[in-house]
Each structure stands twice: as structure tokens, then as C-alpha cells.
Amino acid sequence: MNWKSTTKKLLLLWLVFNIPALTLVYFWQPELWYGVSLFIVTGLAPLFIAVVTITDRSGSYTSYADEPLDPTLQIANQTLPFLRRGLNEETASNTAEIIRKIADVAAVAITDRVRVLAYIGAGSDHHKAGGPIMTIATREVIKTGEMKVIQDNYGLDCPVADCPLQSAVVVPLKCKGEVMGTVKLYRTQQGDMSPATVKLAVGVAQLLGMQMELAELDRQAQLVTKAELDALQAQINPHFLFNTLNTIIMFSRTNPETARRLLIRLASFFRHALKRHGHFNTLKEEIEYFNTYLILERARFRDKLRVVREIDEELLEYKIPVLTIQPLVENAIKHGILPKPGQGTVQITVRKHDHEMLIVIRDDGVGIDPALQTKVLTPGFGSGNGVGLSNVHERLKGLFGEEYGLRIVSVPGEGTSIYVRIPLVCSTAKKEELVHEA
What we know:
Blueprint (H helix, E strand, L loop, with lengths): L2 H26 L4 H21 L17 H13 L5 H15 L3 E5 L4 E6 L14 H9 L3 E3 L16 E9 L2 E10 L7 H42 L1 H17 L1 H19 L5 E3 H19 L3 E7 L7 E3 L3 H13 L6 E10 L2 E8 L6 H4 L15 H12 L6 E5 L3 E9 L7 H7 L1
Parallel strand pairs: 7-9
Antiparallel strand pairs: 1-2, 1-5, 3-4, 4-5, 6-8, 9-10, 10-12, 11-12
Helix pairs in contact: 1-2, 3-4, 3-6, 6-8, 6-12, 7-8, 8-9
């Protein structure tokens, strides 16, 4: 069989199908181009490596049967459908089973930073998934980000005297440079953790981390799309439109000039909602947007709603993620002020703190029930329209890191404060860089 000719045909087919796809994405959805191109190029990697493995130094081609596919590539190929859904107990269990079979080891464990997500193999009668991480070595790997090889059962910290596990390699599982968990391969003989097994474990962890990064890119693209769709539903839903138009009709009889101004604001509000957004707006643009929203709501609620703004004007040209402030203000009004008897105040503060922009949305409303405070940032929680707190929370963490999610402080009967931190690198000059990184 002419492998050289076949390889050329495969590469040609890859170019024919994927180059036009990349071109369409670049012009149609440029903000997604980086993620899509990374996915497609990653798909080419196994083909490229296969070509290399069947080519010897003299340039001759041999049969695939003569050179079995590398175990790391087999694992990557079979685990891709699972890890594209993220790392959880189900996907970790499926992945661990595949690794154990292909790597020919006694047992495999996968953890996140605090729990054992999956355990497959010898010792499963007492090594259980779902519990906290007990092994000192595993906690050290998570803390340092450095691999650890254990050649005797003493380093495994297992309290069961007749545990069959005698040696292990623990490798950090990294996503976007951060340690998200570990992959652990075990053997039943002391000193049996060979360099080949260690190398395999490192390769598997690297490939799994890359697949998790692809999953995160997909998730971020879906979050941005969902935010835009939810925004349209919130701004153009019949209840919002009916209430606003009803207010305008009322003013048209008593104060036509106010009615005219409100109509202009309503048109501006819809125009912004229908405008195609990237990932970022300037703080000035976001302020204009939520100010329009507040004007419409204050016309409806009148003295019921009081708004206080404290905004550092030096920050107006810095970039923040689109649809960050308005959803938080809307939440404060709907769930904090409206259920409260009498007048309520929403205070919006934006200031510089160290090398970050600090945004605080504070209301003196009814507060949040303590039983719900741990749930309000859970994806899908709540039944209202609009961009929920969880969407803003997840987008901030995805763009800037786990420490940049929303922080909520609430006292029932006194009010709620929501804190947002955004790195000040999000300036106008950095716009293009951040859009591609997102």
C-alpha cells in the first residue's frame, strides 16, 4: 500500500474541509476564531504524529501494523468525548477506566483540588471516589504543581495494612496554567514505577489538560452567546415593554416632554440590546447602558427608587466584560428594593483598588435569605428573565480566573452588597489582545 500517497490525500482532505471553515468563522464570528482554530489544529495532531511514526530516518514508509499507536495518543483519542464536557465525577470515572486499560497499570485515580473524583482498579474496596483527598503526596502536588514519584507504600499513606498498592506517580492536571487536580497511576510492586510509566503519566496529564482548555473555550463561547440572548429576552420581553410603554402613555397626557424623552431612551435601550457585542465594552459604555435602564425604571417607580453613583472618572476608558453592571443593578432593584416597603436606595460605586477596578452594587433592600445565599451563584438558579448573577459570575471567572467571581454579602432586612473585581489590564489599548485571549 502506498502510504505516502494516502498521507497526502488525508492532508489534502483536511485542508479542503477545515480552511474554508476557519475562514468563515474568522469573518462571521471573529471572537470565536481562536478557540475554533485551536480545536481544528489539535485534531490534526494525531494525523501528524501518525505520519512521523511511520516514517523512518531514510524516508521510507512502513505499515501501521508495524508501529502501534502511542498509548498516550490512544488515551487522548478515547477520552476526548468525555473531557469536552469538563471534569466531574462522571467524566473522570470514564477517563480513569480508559487510562487503566491502555496504560496497563493496577489502578488509576483522578482528583480535583479537594476531592477524589474517580478511582478504578486494585484497592477499590477501600479507595473510594467522592471523598476528600487524604494522601499527603497528592496535596503537595496540588500545592507545588510538581510531579511526585512514590516507590514504596509508606509514601501512599494508606491506613489499610494489606492494601495492594505499593508504588505510584502523581502528576498535576493543569488547565490554563493552574493546577485543577491530579492524575495518579498505581502499581502493586514496590519500586515498579518505571521511567516509561512516569513519562506516560506526564503525557496523559498534559493532553487531558489541553482537552480541558478546549472545553473551557467552548463553555466561554456558550456563556457569551447565552448572555446576549438572555439580554435580548430581558430587554424585549412583553412585560418590560408593556410596563415601560404604559408609563410613557401616562406621561403623554400629563407631561408630553417627559414622554418624548422616555421614548428616546427606550429606543436607545433597544438599540444597545440589538447591537452586536464583543467580549468587552468600556466602563463609559456600560454606564450609559445601565443609566438608560435606570431612567426607564425610575420613571415607572418614581420615589420608590433612589440611585447614588460614585464613579472614578479616570476609569471610564478601561474595558470591562459586556453586561456586567446592568444585570447586578437590575437584580438589586427587583429582588432587593421592590419587595421592601417604602423607598429604597441602590448605590453604584466604581473605584480603583491596587491594580484592579472594584465595582460595588449595594442596596438597602430586604436582603437574601441565608439558605439561598450559597445558591444564587449556581448556574440556572432563579426564575427571572435577564442575565442572571450566575452568568456574570461564571464569565468573570472564565475570563480572569477563579478568584475573580462575584462576592455577595447580604444581611436579611438590611440589604445586599455585590463586589466585582476586574484587572486594570483591560484598558482600551489591550482590547484586541483580550478579545483573542477570551
